[in-house]
Structures are given as structure tokens and as C-alpha cells.
Amino acid sequence: MACFLAPAAAAIAATAVRKKIPEKYHIDWLVSMLWGGVVMLAVEHIAHGEVVLYPPFLTAGLLEVFPEILRVGVPMALSIFLIWGIMVMIAARRSKKAKYAGA
Q1: What is the distance between the alpha carbons of residues 99 and 86, in angstroms, rounded to a whole number?
Q2: I need a labelling partner for 44 at 20 to 30 A (CA). Which of 5, 24, 76, 85 fits?
Q3: Are 8 and 75 in contact (CB under 8 A)?
Q4: Are 42 and 11 in contact (CB under 8 A)?
């Protein structure tokens, strides 16, 4: 129902601070991955009628929403951060190898 709210919160925060993060961390990759996941999940939830485009927007009550956010949304956001971290490490290693190969 609302598992996309955890990655959405992370995407909002990452978007807000991306200008302050050094380029070597490729924060735009993270922002793209987070917003892409949010859009994909929102479309899926809309298609299944779990989210509607009029108030109250969520078809379930808060007692169902919070456990889903904690059980599904938070691990999903953490997975995105983990994958982004691996991508940044690989990019850093390749950059170092290219530096030494060119020197």
C-alpha cells in the first residue's frame, strides 16, 4: 500500500543535499535510483487500486500502512543504498586503475 513512502523520503532527502555531496560519490546515481523506484512502485500501487488519486490517497488505514513501510519500504530503501554504495566502490576502483594505467 505505501511501501514506496520510505524510498520517497530518502529520495527527497538525497535530492535536497545532492549539491553538497562531492562528485566522487555520484549522488545523482542514488537520486535517480531512489526516484525511479518510487515512481515504479507508485504506478504499481495505483494500477492495483491500493493508492488512489483523490483523498485520502491510501486505501488502507494507518494500522496497515506503518507495518508495511517498516517491513517492505525500509529494507527496499536500504537495498538501494547498498547497491549504490557498491556502484560507487566499483567506479572508484576503476578510476584508480585508469589513473595508474595512464601514468
Answers
A1: 20
A2: 85
A3: no
A4: no
Q: Give me the DSSP letters along 80-102.
A: HHHHHHHHHHHHHHHHHHHHHHH
The predicted model scores a pTM of 0.87
| Chain centre distance of CA 52 | 22
**CA–CA separation, 10 and 91 (whole Å):** 22
Q: Collapsing DSSP states into helix, strand and coil, what is residue 8? A: helix
Is 51 strand, coil or helix?
Answer: strand
- As a whole number of angstroms, the distance between CA 11 and CA 25 comes to 16
State the pLDDT confidence band at 97, using cuts at 50, 70 and 90: confident
Residue 103 has pLDDT above 60, yes or no: no
- Residue 32 CB partners (closer than 8 Å, separation 6+): none
Which residues, in sequence order, are bridge partners of residue 58? Answer: 51
